[in-house]
Protein 1
Amino acid sequence: MTSEAPDDTARRSPLDAVHVAAGASFTDFAGWQMPVRYSSDLAEHHAVRTAAGLFDLSHMAEILVLGPEAAAALDHALAGRISAVQEGQAKYSLLLAEDGGVIDDLVVYRTGPDRFLVVANAGNRHAAADALRERAASFDCVVDDESDDIALVALQGPKAEEILRGVDGFDIPELDGLRYYRAITGDFRGHEVLVGRTGYTGEDGFEFFLDPDAATELWNAIAETGAGSGLIPCGLASRDTLRLEAGMPLYGHELTRETFPEQVGLGRVVVLGKDGGFVGEQAVAAGPAADAPVLVGLAAEGKRAGRAGYPVFRSDDTESDTLPAGEITSGALSPTLGHPIAMALVHPDLREVGTTLYLDVRGTRIPATVVELPFYSRKKN
Amino acid sequence: MSLDASLKYTAEHEWVAVDGDVARIGITSYAADKLGDVVFVDLPKVGQAVVAGRVVGEIESTKSVGELYAPLDGEIVESNDAVVDDPSLVNSDPFGAGWMIAVRFTELPALLTADEYAALTAE
């Protein structure tokens, strides 16, 4: 076991004092010191599946695109048809390189006729902002990296709505009509808050974008309101197992500069033939090589999980089968399902559900079965 | 964190309780906290010879994989089945019910005192 020295240059969330007071353990994430867990990552995971959890995601990047041609600029910059997104709607999209690789995955909120909020991964903040700026240069709009001036708090879980309704002084008009992947502006005690019904856990929930100076008050208000309903603060460890169960890709794992959207089941996010085209369109239209690996879900028995980077083999014959048929991109013992799960990029011949593959867990080959993604979906009402 | 001064410690974040020629070994609360919730423990079998500095077991959490090192040369005389059955003991009671192995040794190497280990983890 090794310990890591704290990084004095690390950035701290506007909610840092709250996390320290709550006894959080911290981890370095894209240059930020963020809570990895408060007490138990399993308890935090289960709280989100059964009640609710509160996450600080202030490390995420928020980039505003404003102006009469903002929609056209985003159609050109991103793989999806952003111009078709209605005001008050959110859309998951991809920022591609010319060669079809993924620079980042992001969520775009249309917050006005000519105003879009692009939420990018913390580690890709500058790559995303630079690419958007460059691609929007010939359009009548401005690209403004607001990441330092926006805090992000997420309330996730089956009791999220009930808790939100009970938060004193949080006025959200039309919360009744706020469906999944919709967003609306609310008012929390005089502070404007963008409320999105979005998340990264596989549960119902909300994300709140607001002034960092108001973040602590909102966090405490939600925490107090939800405590009686089983809400607890949750760190990045549980966020990762929650998103993995929900089959959601994580940049740097399932998505990289070397993977095409189609390889990881995100072909539906790419809209070919938009007016004016988009960066990376030619490459994705041509598609990846026929033998390029594809993303599959894998389920195993027992408790021993395959982890990101572990090779995947066709057989358990370590003598003759020495050439890996793929590699795990994310893996863990699923807290909800109780058995190991993994996402892996494997040879396309092996993508069929029911195929048995072998995970090389530090020298031991453990059988796993290709299953449909996601591993977990919440029960819909 | 106040550490039991009657125990010895290692730079791999293990504790060693010496009783005669048998050393009982586990991981420290510092290590358990760093790992997060432990969900899988794999330990060597009784009778197995171990060599100081070599990996003899695995401790997996939801987030990561930790290794159990033999802090001394010897032979496994006990292996904690309870912690294999219920890995959460590593988090709830790392210095007690969450112990890992007991090793009969011939020679006790230099190990860290509580103060030395505390200094190591005082970041």
Protein 2
Amino acid sequence: MTDDTLLSARGLNLRFGAIPALVDVDADLWPGEVLAIVGESGSGKTTLLNVLSGRMAPQSGVVWYRDPQGHLADVHAMAAPALRALHRSDWGFVHQNPRDNLRMGVTAGGNVGERLMAQGGRHYGRIRAEAIAWLEQVEIDAARVDDLPRTFSGGMLQRLQIARTLVTHPRLVFMDEPTGGLDVSVQARLLDLIRGLVARLGIAAVLVTHDLAVARLLAHRVMVMQRGVVVETGLTDQVLDDPQHPYTQLLVSSVLQA
Amino acid sequence: MLETKGLKKQFLLHLQGGVRIPVLDGADFSVAAGECVALVGPSGAGKTTLLRSLYGNYRANGGAILVRHNGAMIDIVTASPRDVVRVRETTLGYVSQFLRVVPRVSALEIVAQAARGLSPEQARERAAALLTRLHIPARLHALPPATFSGGEQQRINLARGFIGDHPILLLDEPTASLDNANRDIVIAMILEAKAAGKAVVGIFHDTHVRDAVADRRFEVLPLQDAA
């Protein structure tokens, strides 16, 4: 295992008018590691995800990404085409709402195959076979390969989005509330699916969630945010079982026991 | 295999007006390969706190927890979270009192996923063997354990703790909800682990189990509550 980080952020600051969204945020992610960003609505966690993934620029601070050749790239200094290429190949982004990522007018198989074609895949038969293999990995019946996503349930759409994201074997996946808005029965299956895929493929992930149970099940480490500030960071089970910061203690003690 | 020096742990409860609860103050503890040490003391004295601190689940406030990991000593108190994850993967196994898993995953998968260095097929075979040894019948292996009895869940937890074959095993009340037959199996498993050179630290309220497996006791005494 290497000690080089995959992604590193230092001194990120971003304000929306008077509202601080990020205040002096540092973050590190190592290959194969899952990092959860937790906090309440408005704590800045989604903003941090967007800044880490280059989708939103910070007012100050820097985000470094180490490419497979070991070169460091300043994510916010990259040219737009290079960043787009990164998002199409090495990176993946799983949105809370799968409709933000999927093309609703294209078949399920097309949605998965499109990412392969964007990477230069041209052999139709191979692309289709790989798309079907991925549908099966995310437990979507292969018979649905030619159906439009609009005929899919919310849970299936989310799984289709995950297949579309992972088909190119990204090294790093950003996930924004991947189980938000789903029925709890579907959430459990999706969690297990994400956990299995991330562990098996050795993918690193930054996961935004307000659900501490999701963080516990998926993440090695967790960052707790409050009003744009990272108030606590550490091993997931340590932060959740022995929280040190008043805000983390409040968060942990406020969870309903089912 | 594992040694603590001057281990301190207190809880600071911000929501309760900043109450401080000191639990451990300078605990010096050690366990060798092939040895089982039982943590003893009255309820609330801090046995589980000590055990959880050893695993890095609780953050110690002072002192050191030295663990032999890949031939070198590493201090859990100051190790980075990533290093603690690695130590848990290869060196430290933990059996908690409660099973906490992804819902709707089968008992067999839960155990098999905790295996190390085995192919998925081997892991499932080994998991099935362990579960069967712990009297979880094969017809239950494919079911998620949420609906299982307390004793059955505990045995799933035990199978998950033992399948990893870690050099150091931390056991928190491993036989609390088990009947005598299953209790004896757990005793046999702990004795086998010791014979294989593993270091075992456990909390055993059941004196029969404790007498059967422990070589030594380590007293955890309640501290006077500070104001």
